[in-house]
Specification:
Elements: E1 2-5, H1 10-23, E2 28-32, E3 47-49, H2 55-65, E4 69-72, H3 78-83, H4 85-105, E5 110-116, H5 140-159, E6 163-168, E7 170-172, H6 185-195, E8 198-201, E9 209-213, H7 214-226, E10 238-239, E11 243-245, H8 247-255, E12 262-265, H9 271-276, H10 285-291, H11 299-311
Parallel strand pairs: 1-2, 1-4, 2-3, 4-5, 5-6, 6-10, 7-9, 8-12
Antiparallel strand pairs: 9-11
The structure holds (3R)-3-hydroxy-L-norvaline.
(3R)-3-hydroxy-L-norvaline binds next to loops.
Length: 314
């Protein structure tokens, strides 16, 4: 049995559908704080309401389903985290510790937990940011992910818990919207391009950020989880590079499909300083060398696939 916590989120929505496709619907228990949102994936299967801060509730879910794998995706992202820092720290940190403790108690075989390029900060190398370097994240989300990486490695070393993690770039997908992040512009822009032909971007024109298509992110997750344990030498979290582009470059690519599309830029959005603290590009040679990671979606492929799929929906 696979338990996915945070099943209604941007990653969870896609991961549940893919995992159910691989293992069968009944093998994957989706769970989130609220009742299921019947989204584009329209997949059905076991569902539980879970609150990772409610130890009794969470313990009951582990006891009832005795999962052999757990994907713990529930978190508050960077922008919302700055609006409610203590709530973000509590959910992201205490929630992870509850999941790690119950995974040990119930002898869960593998645990996945998403980290982020947000673990890097203003003094980290900005280009081709390496796996190991100075990390001084200045968002609650970022340092909760950095601390979470330390806890994951600690539980691996101390309790032999097979926990695995990826530092995702900003994720772009069409099946589920992002929730409260700084990279959300790269999803909203597609909806607006189709709906109104215009998008006011909350990041400045030349803000380069590492991004990745959701299909690549999910494939990387499955590849990491399927890799033999001895190939997974990094137990904090693996850099994943994706591709780096600016809002201007993304808009230019969209204009190839929607010639009349216009982008404008609002200024002094608080998310700009978050973006400015993050790397502009990432080095993911450890993921490539240790478990064979290879990216598939470049910018033209992302834009073509997003517009092809969203045209039906918007
Ligand atoms: C965020 N989408 O914007 C997340 C992600 C690298 C960005 O962690 O907060």
């Amino acid at each position: 049995k696979i338990l996915v916590i945070g099943a209604n989120g941007q990653i969870g929505t896609e991961l549940v559908a893919i995992l159910r496709g691989i293992h069968g619907a009944d093998a994957v228990i989706a769970s989130d704080l609220k009742s299921p949102i019947y989204n584009l994936r329209k997949n059905s299967g076991p569902y539980e309401i879970v609150n990772v801060l409610d130890k009794d509730n969470l313990h009951h879910i582990f006891e009832k389903h005795r999962p052999t794998q757990v994907y713990h995706l529930a978190a508050i992202l960077s922008a919302v985290g700055e609006q409610k820092p203590k709530i973000a720290w509590d959910l992201n940190m205490t929630g992870l510790l509850h999941v790690l403790d119950f995974s040990v108690e119930f002898n869960v075989k593998k645990v996945f937990w998403p980290s982020s390029i947000a673990v890097f900060g203003p003094h980290s190398p900005q280009w081709d940011t390496p796996q190991y370097c100075v990390m001084d994240p200045n968002t609650v989300y970022g340092f909760s992910k950095l601390a979470g990486e330390r806890w994951c490695e600690y539980y691996f070393n101390k309790y032999n818990l097979d926990v695995r993690s990826l530092r995702y770039p900003g994720l772009i997908g069409w099946r589920a919207n992002p929730g409260g992040g700084t990279t959300d512009y790269a999803v909203h822009i597609f909806h607006e391009a189709l709906k109104s032909g215009h998008y006011e971007c909350f990041l400045s024109a030349n803000t380069a950020l590492p991004m990745m298509y959701m299909d690549d992110a999910i494939r990387a997750t499955i590849m990491l989880m399927d890799a033999p344990a001895d190939k997974v030498e990094i137990r904090s979290s693996y850099n994943l590079a994706g591709i780096s582009f600016t809002p201007t470059q993304l808009a230019e690519e969209i204009k190839k499909h929607i010639p009349g599309f216009e982008i404008s830029y609002s200024d002094n959005d608080p998310r700009q300083q978050i973006a400015d603290s993050w790397p502009k590009s990432i080095d993911d040679s450890y993921a490539q060398n240790e478990w064979g990671w290879q990216l598939e979606y470049n910018l033209p492929k992302i834009v073509a696939d997003m517009l092809l799929n969203l045209r039906e929906l918007v």
